[in-house]
Amino acid sequence: MSLLAGVSRNARELIISGESERPEDAVSKVLDEFVLQGNAFEMESQIASEAVRRLHGFGVLQPYLDDKGIEEIWINRPNQIFVARSGGVEAIELDLNAEELRTLIFKMLRQSGRRLDRTMPFVDAALPDGSRLHVVIPEVTASHWSVNIRKFPVGVITLDQLVEWNSLTAKQAEYLKIAVKTGQNMLIAGATHSGKTTLLCALINELESGTRLVSCEETFEIRSNLVDWVAMQTRQPNLEGQGEIPLRRLVKEALRMRPSYLVIGEVREAESLDLLIGMNSGIPGLCTIHANSTQSALLKLCTLPLLAGPNISSEFVRATTVQAVDLVVQCSNTAERGRWISEIATVTAGIDGGPIATRVAL
Hints:
By secondary structure, the protein is an alpha/beta fold. The chain is built from twelve helices and 14 strands.
């Protein structure tokens, strides 16, 4: 049971919302109430710790956000939380009702500039620590708010570290280091939670220090140690349905910003056409895509640009893909091995002019 369950409703709401102008006043109010209720004095330090966590953090969720062993957190309904640790999933009971959950979510969104309401019933946003928040609310969901929090390492994981963790071999790492330093265009493919973004950030870390990097993504997830780096993310429309900035617009703007390296967090739709055009204009780049194999990734990349308009032909897209993409790296996540690089393939033209992936023997 929460230590705050015994305090008055006013003090409880003040703690949960974090809206007190002076946090110490809220903590003091809670402590005074416990003393008046006859609670033991030694409980005050525990109450103060939980009160401060709720004021400056995200309440009962904060310990799970602080736990470095947890990779992802999701909530399907109040009082029920699931966490993923090293591929394993466990369910945890929480003292968190629907009202408190909504309050925490709005607190998480406060700094992101993203909104969540009946007209926009789902949202992607970045938390202050870099974690990605995804929320879906009724009537899109049946009854309860659905919450996912994907956590990311604070620092940049290097290719050498991935070798130490057996995520890729030393030969694969050396091959990829040379590829990124020589400006080869790479498509990083894989399923959800297979380590695509982690590998992308590790490859960025191999770029020369003087590289000008421009990155585009839906929610800030990319991490880099480069000094000359411009990071951009999409924007949702306002209440009047105006002001939206889609990923395709960001890619177009990025090409005007003199990038020496272009990175797209993930291609899902018509922005893939702008990515191919950018890569085919002499600007090396990286991007991720959801796919089951290197060949499936190329097939998907040849299909998505057709969403840009009826005047885009499949022949043009296939030819552009062959010229623009040099390598496809497949990330996998299995129970036996965890996350690992299962395949690296070069891209060449097939008999019909379309792209084919040829496995690199590493």
